[in-house]
Amino acid sequence: MNGDFTFHNPTKLHFGENAMDALADELKAFGPVVQLCYGGGSIKKNGIYDQVVSILKSAGKTIVEDGGVMPNPTLEKMLHGAALARENNVDLILAVGGGSTIDYAKAVSVSAWCDEDPWEKYFIRFEEPSCRIIPVGDVLTMVGTGSEMNGGSVITNHDANLKIGKVFGPDVFPKFAILNPRFTFSVPYRQMVAGFFDIMCHILEQYLSGEDDTTSDYIAEGLMLSLIHSSRIAIKNPEDYEARSNIMWTATWALNTLIAKGKSTDWEVHMLGQAVSALTDATHGMTLSAVSLPYYRLILPYGLKKFVRFAQNVWGVNPEGKSETEIAQEGLKAFEAWMREIGVAMNITELGATEDMLEQLADATLVLTGGYKILTREEILAIFKESL
Ligand code: NZQ
Ligand code: ZN
Fold it and tell me: Which of 72, 148, 149, 191 gets mutated to test ligand 1 (max ligand atoms within 8 A of its CB)?
């Protein structure tokens, strides 16, 4: 394990078919006014909204309604939510939904009482909050992002053609999270598999980097094996509780800071995917799948040993009689076959990107330094071209 680190995840997590039973108790710790954030209406169809409202009412809470959070939440919506929180002097923000709703809630929580421009402060200058932070709790309905138990918040600014994620510290992590795998059964197939790929990508962003022997990488391999196994069951039967519950738990651990400890991490696939999303508003997990293979093929020679390990330990590639490059490439082929099997986007054209967007896509891509190769602009353009 490299360097010194502190592991502190303050989110209290309730998991299982009866997880919602914990909500009433959790609410006792907060004041009377609750801003109820949710998306475009799925929770009204599947009954989760009614359950939550009834618990809030029994607890004597005043509900400030804040629905309509869109996938890839926008700065405009976030500023509106922040004003609502401030006007109503909200005591708790309760996010009921997927990553978009929870990310939105976190952004609102640090913006409501912020006297500066929150976009500039958090998403451009990456500063920490210096104002009162409204506590957030969540009820997760869609699996993938890990937002339920982390400090991440990704906001899209359409005027600037930018989608940027800020990773806040423990003060912004949700205070509690309610995870009932059954709540995810109504997620449409395409969203479900986009979430599966998002989980895989989170693990790979932290696994495909560094050359040291770390416990974090062994945990990452275990999470990947579980995800691949359960995803194959879930695509045949999305209501298989065992598979969906395993995937829900894997998603949380894939991005709650554990497997990043003691090692370097990459995150360049997310930077490429976020650029696609900024220009097309495509589903997050699909933007990642569409750019992954061209990116991994480009960095493979620079991280060869790790790609060989990935091939053998995760995909079971037999190394006999093969060069390291051949083993690594066979691993990527197996990875590609799994992507096609679960049915994720394999190119950015199907997400609405066109060749004349290439320069803009490159402009919107942040270049990070933790991976095996720091990308040049030419390489970024080549990846997007190959992803078309
Ligand atoms: O809006 P509603 O009507 O609720 O419908 C949503 C939405 O259309 C639907 N859905 C969610 N739960 C459902 C359901 N439909 C039926 N039944 C249910 N139980 O699914 C659609 C997608 O929801 P969304 O919240 O957008 O998906 P996801 O959880 O993938 O979140 C994506 C956002 O999270 C960010 C992404 O960039 C994107 O903006 N991320 C956040 C991260 C973090 N906080 O650490 C890290 C990730 O890498 C990611 O960047
Ligand atoms: Zn992601």
Answer: 191
